[in-house]
Amino acid sequence: MERYNVIREKNPREIVLLKGFPCIWGKCAFCDYTDDNSRDEDEMLALNSRILSRVTGEKGVLEVINSGSCFELPEGTREEIRRIARERGIRRLFFESHWLYRKRLEEMRAYMGIPVTYKIGVETFNHEFRERVLNKHAGFKRPEEVARYFDSPCIMVGIKGQTKEMIDYDIRMVKKHFRLGTVSVFTNNTTKIRQDPELVKWFVREYAWLREDPSIEVLYENTDFGVGD
């Protein structure tokens, strides 16, 4: 599995995929990324240290992802991220967090001592689909609630049961309320959630213009950031 890459197009940055403790929720119907979680802290610290050693600071920005939230990274790994940021001239960090940690975001910002852009897996702003189908356990009803805490939502498209109207609304809300966003085309995995190929074809055609939008990154494959498996 690749765990380090340099993104050179939109929002240039280094990106690392680290290991963390189990996700605070871990029951999303579409997610099997939790297989990358661990309870072996020594093993996680060793692996994460090897990956972080590759960070050069060349872009001045580092994105750190794991199969969950940044708060689930071992304390030693968080300390190493902070040290590397100082030593290698990192001016901004990108972290991911579940909605359940929304009251702790400023805590991590203060700890790191540099600006942090927080991503959140919204998946969709359609509350019914997000909670009843995807089982996201994120109880917000309006995008404004998310924007109060987070900087960059990640939405998924191309899921069976999703509609064109839902996708249209989600992308409008990302553009209206957030400076940055990510759109991820759902890829079939080991869960029961399935891709809708016709909806994906429609999205790729209808939203081809997103390729040129500097504020939205589109992942047509879940490894398009150059990390993962």
TrEMBL record:
Identification of the protein by name: Radical SAM protein
Protein's organism: Wansuia hejianensis
Ranges for domain Elp3/MiaA/NifB-like radical SAM core: 13-213
Signal peptide from the UniProt entry: none
SUPFAM superfamilies in the record: Radical SAM enzymes (SSF102114)
Molecular function, one GO term: iron-sulfur cluster binding
